[in-house]
Write a structure and sequence with these properties.
- With 191 residues, this protein is mainly α.
- The chain has helices at 2-7, 18-31, 37-60, 66-92, 96-116, 120-143, 147-164, 167-183, 187-190.
- Helix 4 runs antiparallel to helix 5 (96-116).
- The chain is globular, with a radius of gyration of 18 Å.
């Protein structure tokens, strides 16, 4: 994978920092997710491999170093994002079990990051990422026709959106909840 990673043309770069390479790989993978999801999976896996390498390197550094802790926090955010992206690519390919696994792993990391968040903006960002993952898991369960689980995840995402005052998130979650109730033939609640 490292050889392949070094052959990927990254925009505007000769010697980019590893975190920038991860961001670039994620950006490239998202650009092609509908036209060529298989390529997006390859790019996402390269980004994930790089995240894991960086996390392994940070474990070798003393945990007493505050800069190392911040760096690890940032890499965990990138890893959760990458896992979420890989889940989206599998979703596009209708590989729902794999999409579910990636999203649940991203959710676990984001929940862990919430426990590490020290500032209000860090906590709000973590909650927003958690709500997105919960919603994605709900959509996957909806596609698997497991409507009770879909509803559960969408309701959790809605609660976070309401807590954050995220009007777009609330609207999206209410729409998703309506779809679930429609499938459950509970039309009054679907409306």
């Amino acid at each position: 994978l490292k050889h392949l990673l070094n052959t990927i043309p990254i925009r505007n770069s000769v010697n980019l920092a590893d975190t920038t390479r991860i961001n670039e790989l994620n950006e490239l993978s998202l650009e092609g997710m509908y036209d060529n999801p298989d390529t997006s999976v390859i790019l996402g896996n390269l980004a994930l491999h790089l995240c894991n390498d960086l996390l392994s390197d940070t474990l070798k550094i003393s945990n007493k170093n505050q800069q190392s802790a911040i760096y690890k926090f940032d890499i965990l955010i990138l890893k959760a994002t990458t896992l979420g992206n890989l889940g989206a690519f599998q979703y596009v390919k209708a590989n729902y079990p794999s999409a579910l696994t990636y999203n649940l792993n991203a959710l676990k990391i984001n929940e862990f990051l919430l426990t590490l968040a020290k500032t209000i903006p860090e906590k709000q960002a973590a909650l927003k990422r958690i709500a997105a993952r919960l919603s994605n898991v709900g959509l996957i369960y909806w596609n698997l026709a497991d409507y009770p689980k879909a509803l559960n995840y969408h309701l959790k995402a809605l609660k976070i959106g309401e807590k954050l005052g995220n009007k777009n998130g609330i609207a999206t979650r209410l729409g998703n909840i309506g779809l679930v109730y429609y499938e459950l033939a509970d039309l009054p609640k679907a409306l």
